[in-house]
């Protein structure tokens, strides 16, 4: 809770030693990570195994009930009715459980990874306390669970791309550039509603496709909410489908306090229009109900503000 390299090693090694392996994933209602989610992860990672979930509230220690062992042997018999040759576990309880169900205990698990100092303290509780510190030892679905997406959000010429390029190396991650810029550089015609919907979908698709290559933080230069603001600014409407796209964990709202620079794809050189666009961009965040932090200033001040906001997010 969650699965980590020790669990993966346990299951993969066990699978090599038997013809059929049953993996039992158990949970309680107040677990910090829902049991059904962990069950889905394990089924996705080990499709050749029989992965079964058990979410009933039952005793967790022999001291909690005189019926502890009958209860648990019954659970095992239900999920694995065939005779058991080997029982695999990485903890001491496996010895008695094996005796109870009539199998031979094979103590695989996290201990087989202790040769590497960095993994010697690997445990689910340690991972929950510091997912980023254990990132190399987390399977992809667990990384997806813990990865935070930070979107740089703002009107044009507010330093989003510059800031993303500065932050990514510091965070040891990648950043997803703005699809809309590429679209407009190639297609010089006036943007239609269909164009803007495509831009929003393409931005989200690139973000989803890039996430697996990021570390604990994925940086995104705009998302569908920015495209919704563009739609409102250019066409006078805010499409619901853009507002309903998947949201980032944190938005850094770039204040419009930098000089406007014409890069060949920008629209609103007029200060009044630029200010109006900035107001719409902010209103979209407020109406979407997403968490955001204002980022202002120039140079190191702007960068430091972004660093601080991201650091706060990672501590949550």
Automatic annotation (TrEMBL):
<dbReference type="Pfam" id="PF13521">
    <property type="entry name" value="AAA_28"/>
</dbReference>
<feature type="domain" description="NadR/Ttd14 AAA">
    <location>
        <begin position="150"/>
        <end position="302"/>
    </location>
</feature>
<dbReference type="InterPro" id="IPR052735">
    <property type="entry name" value="NAD_biosynth-regulator"/>
</dbReference>
<dbReference type="InterPro" id="IPR038727">
    <property type="entry name" value="NadR/Ttd14_AAA_dom"/>
</dbReference>
<protein>
    <submittedName>
        <fullName>AAA family ATPase</fullName>
    </submittedName>
</protein>
<dbReference type="InterPro" id="IPR014729">
    <property type="entry name" value="Rossmann-like_a/b/a_fold"/>
</dbReference>
<dbReference type="InterPro" id="IPR027417">
    <property type="entry name" value="P-loop_NTPase"/>
</dbReference>
